[in-house]
Hints:
By secondary structure, the protein is of the alpha/beta class. It has 2 helices and 6 strands; from the N terminus they run E-E-E-E-H-E-H-E.
Amino acid sequence: MTHTTATLVYxxxxxxxxxxTGRCTLQCVFCPKHNGSKQIHQYQLALxxxxxxxxxxxxxxxVSQFEQYxxxxxxxxxxxxxxLLEVAKEIKSRGGQVRVNTDA
Length: 104
């Protein structure tokens, strides 16, 4: 299966953000996707599929270069829980810090 190029990771300040889903259970008025945008900062975050851990892990980089890894993109990260848990475990095994931005 071929997927279009999507922004799966992006950096803001000293954090690397992990965009693992476009699905969400809410319709927050402040959310860019409900205001006609698919962009955060200069990053286009719309996804055409739920990324697997194997797609994200190679993009982690050197954990010592980031204060934290944040599961926060264009949707509710717990809606791709298998990927979230696998990637978080990998980050922690490398000595990195993890944060989950969730509506749960």
